[in-house]
Amino acid sequence: MSKVFLQLQEPPLRRRPGEGLALWDLGFRPFYLLAATLALLSVPLWALQFSGLLGHGGLRGSAWHAHEMVFGYALAIIIGFLFTAGRNWSGQPTPTGRPLMGLAALWVLARVLVLSPWLWASLLVNVAVPWLAAWGLWRALHAGGNRRNYFFVGLLLAIGLATAALHLSELGLLAQLPLPAALARGLGLPLALDLLLFIIAVMAGRVLPMFSNNGVPGMNARRDDRVERAALGSVLLLAAGDAVGLSGPAMLLPLLAALVAHGWRFALWQPWKTLRNPLVWVLHAAYAWLLLHLALRAAAALQWLPASLATHALTIGLIGLITLGMITRTALGHTGRPLKAGPIETAAYLAMLAAALLRVFLPLLIPAALLQAVWLSAALWATAFALYLWRYGPMLLRPRIDGLPG
Fold first, then answer.
1. What's the pTM?
2. Does residue 147 contact residue 89 with C-beta atoms inside 8 Å?
3. By the 8 A CB rule, do 80 and 103 touch?
């Protein structure tokens, strides 16, 4: 297998525009399809488990659900995005052809193993996926001298450590390591969510102002270097607090600092001007959920409401909505199509937005309606990705319509 992953690119196939199979031409194609398929299937399965209508696999209950949303769905989006963007950043090839096929197959195997009783095998394969992706990305960045984005390699390696920690915790071994208890608790899912939040914060700062100004006439979304540093630094501060086990009121100051920094950043982007362009407003709507997540997490730190509401504001509202927006926009651009969302995309965005609103606010307003909130949210989430697969599945399988590579 190592020989397969060392080869980064096969000779390009000669095709006519729009003809033939292009699934393995660039990373976004298989990994966006795999992520959307997992999202469509796994969340309804979790709703069945949550309702007590379905049994559990090797990773039990909420551990499986959280693992698959972070290390399955979100990781697939990140790999697809970084392999595609990494080629542009470095001018060098990222894994395509058989190496890309091998990595995708390993990702699928990881999804199967977390349902099995073989947790050690699941640990090894789930760690291998982000680490091999890191290797493929580093090869391209190093060859192109693109040191500015080396930190993405480190983030992929850290995601591998986070999934290992979650598996070791489920095996009952993490608590036996010579680590402070608070640090051990923060190494699994909390670390992974902090890493995802940092990746989103970095990429949002890079692309949202540009996408907004390009997509909305008269837009003047701005970036301020001081605000950017404060926003990214506040996420790292939160991650450090989680790592050392801060909780309760001790986390209130970092949370409020992050809320101010990201609120200021968001205001500079002028989100109120984006409503006529769904490809743009979906990204701004997602970022608004980041602010809501921070506010809800601050309220949870004061024990005013359950922490799970803040978590779902992050996972469905921010991560779900911004990834759905990005995998539509980048798929359109990299398949040579106009950057314009139609009724199907808009319906998918609205379904995801409704899923987040129901999962967060229905239990807040009516605590006894938690089960109904889970089911309604799961149905809307699955609807969003069913629409995505219906619209984008065929275009991800076929070459660019303009005949260019990618």
1. 0.90
2. no
3. no
